[in-house]
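Lab notebook, bench 4. The sequencing result for the construct came back, and we need a structural model before the next group meeting so we can plan mutations. Quick request posted to the team channel:

Model the 3D structure of this chain.
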Amino acid sequence: MTVTIIGLGLIGGSLALSLRQHGLAAHLIGVEEGPDHAHRALALGLVDEIAADLPAAVRRADFVVVAVPMDAMLAVLPRVLDATGPRQTVIDVGSTKAALLAAVAGHPRRGRFVATHPMAGTENSGPDAAVPGLYEGKTVVLCDVAHSDPDAVQLVEKIYQALPMRLLYLDAAAHDLHAAYVSHISHITSFALALTVLEKEKEEQRIFDLAGGGFASTVRLAKSSSAMWVPIFRQNRLNVLDVLDEHLHQLRHLRELLAREDYAGLAEQIHQANHIRKIIP
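Done. Here's the predicted structure in C-alpha cell form:
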C-alpha cells in the first residue's frame, strides 16, 4: 500500500516504522506541520517523502493515518475525509473518541473512517521518539465500527493484527470512560507527583541522587508533552474529573489513616491495592 501519515511524532512515526517492518507499506508519505519535525522524520527514514499539500497526500494514499494532537484532530480529520475517495481507508490513533466521532458523524465519507486507539506509547515526543515494535503485543481499541464500511474495518483489523496487536471493540463513550480510568488518570497523577516533589525538594541534585526505580517509574509520565495531554484532558474532562475525584478520596483516606497512626488500617488498604496483581502481573 501507499500510506500517508499525518503527524510524525511518537505514535505516527512508530506506526510508520512498524508498517514498513511488517511489509504493509510500499511507500510512506508524511505530512507534518512543523518544518523541523518534517526534516527530521525524513532524515530518520520514517517516511519516504514529505508532502506539503494535505489533500494531495490523502488522494495518493490507499491508507491514511491521522496522528495529530486531539484538538487539531477535530479540524484535520474532516479535511482528510473531504479528500478521501470511495476505496480509501482512514484511521485516527487518538486518545479520546466521543468529540471526534461527533465531529464527523454526518460526513459523506464517514464510512471510510475507522476510529482506533492503540494503547501504546512512551513519555517522549517528536520524530526522534519513534521506536520500532512499539505496538507489538499491545491492545488497540476500535470504536463504533458499525458506522464504518465493512471492508474498511477488515483492512484495519488485518493491519493491526499483523503488527501484531490485540483487538478490542468499544463504543466511543465506553472508550473515553475506561481510558480516563486506566490511562488519563495515570498521567494527571504523574504530573501532580512531579509538581509535589519539585515544590518540596528544591535541590535538583538531591532528586537525582535519591530517585530510585519506584520514583522514576511513577513520575516517568510527567515528562509527557502538554501539547498532547491538555487536549486529551479538555476533550475527556468530565470522565477525568470523575476519576480524579475518586483518586483524591483515596488519597484523603490514606492520609487520615496515617494521621491517626492506624497502621493496621493502612496495611489493609495496601493489601487491597495489591489485588491489582491479579489484573496486571
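The CA atoms of residues 5 and 65 lie 5 Å apart.
Will bring this to the meeting.
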